[in-house]
TrEMBL record:
This is Core Histone H2A/H2B/H3 domain-containing protein. Residues 1-45 are annotated as: Disordered. It comes from the Eukaryota. Belongs to the histone H3 family. One of its GO terms (cellular component) is nucleosome. Residues 73-108 form the Core Histone H2A/H2B/H3 domain. It comes from Dioscorea zingiberensis. Residues 1-19 have a biased composition (Basic residues). GO terms for molecular function: DNA binding; protein heterodimerization activity; structural constituent of chromatin. InterPro entries: H2A/H2B/H3, Histone-fold, Histone_H3/CENP-A. It holds the Pfam family Histone.
Amino acid sequence: MARTKHISSHPRRSSRKKLNWGQSPRQPEGGSAAKQSSKKRRFRPGTVALREIRKLQRSWNLLIPHAPFFRVAAEFYLVELFSDAYLCSIHAKRVTLMQKDLQLARRIGGRRHW
């Protein structure tokens, strides 16, 4: 049988503070102890990081905004394509980049970074 907590039917009377006229109010004893107990809790190194990782793994929100990430990915693709095409033009003993160099670079497409 589960234990239950019994509440008394008589309301408790709060003790009144005794007013001392002409005297300064006393500070509660252990005032410095109260300050020490209100110290901010310090977790061990890595605990907060692991908690944050678990929280982010549970969420489905994008951490990087879609449009800026898409721009960076497109820029990376174009830079790689043009650098490969320029290598093709150098291989053909030319300095000018031509359309056939771009086509060859796309056809070869040797680098896959994903």
